[in-house]
Amino acid sequence: MEDIITALATAWGESGIAIVRLSGEGSVELADKIFTGKKKLAEHEARFLTLGRLRSSDGHLFDEVLAVRFEKGASYTAEESVEIHCHGGALPAQKCIEELCALGARIALPGEFTRRAFVNGRIDLPQAEAVLGIISAKSDEALYASSRTLQGTFAVKLRGFLDNITLLAAHLEVDLDFPEEDEGYISKDEREKRLESLISA
Questions:
Q1: Per-residue pLDDT tens for 36-81?
Q2: Most buried residue among 58, 61, 81, 181 by CB atoms closer than 10 A?
Q3: Chain-centre distance for alpha carbon 71
Q4: What average pLDDT does range 79-88 have in this prediction?
């Protein structure tokens, strides 16, 4: 995944702000080719917004923006990333993306930022699916359920469930390895109780 991807992180259309996201090694250097501020993005502290302007390849300033850089491991994708907050009309964001692509970035595929977050270990599969759940939620209940999954609640429960299964399997193996013992590592009643508890979970 050496390539740098870019896309609009907010919905297309007229709004107050349109956020263009850039992700991949070299994102900051690439963004600095169109960003003009008091100093380069690379020189600004990570995760802090900075004011600047966007300049096209033919030298025209075309938008006043806020930009923020994220270091590898500290972004949504866990890659080096930049977010450029343009004015919300379709044209400024589109021009920003066109300029970035002309310099070597490519348009991200649908869901590619989330896929990279998953591949890079930033989120697990249930959390990746939860992102889509949050975006497409049609009720408070659906939103809350997806939000809990994104926070890792489901993964914590699943890990606990798997730990209990592993422990019960270990107890059963001990009983099979040492059948001469009158009373196993745990009693038959306790085994059944734990198994029923796992099934009902």
A1: 999 999 999 999 999 999 999 999 999 999 999 999 999 999 999 9
A2: 81
A3: 14
A4: 97
Domain count, the chain: 2
* 74 phi/psi in degrees, rounded to 5: -125, 20
Q: Which of residues 73, 98, 122 is at a domain's end?
A: 122
Joined together, the tokens standing for residue 192 give 């059944």
Query: CATH code at 151?
Result: 1.20.120.430
pLDDT (mean) for 125-131: 85
Per-residue burial over 52-70, b if 16 or more Cβ lie within 10 Å, else e, is: bebbeeeeeebbebebbbb
- Asked if residue 99 has pLDDT above 60, the reply is yes
17-26, 116-125, 158-167 — most confident range: 17-26
CA distance 56 to 30: 13
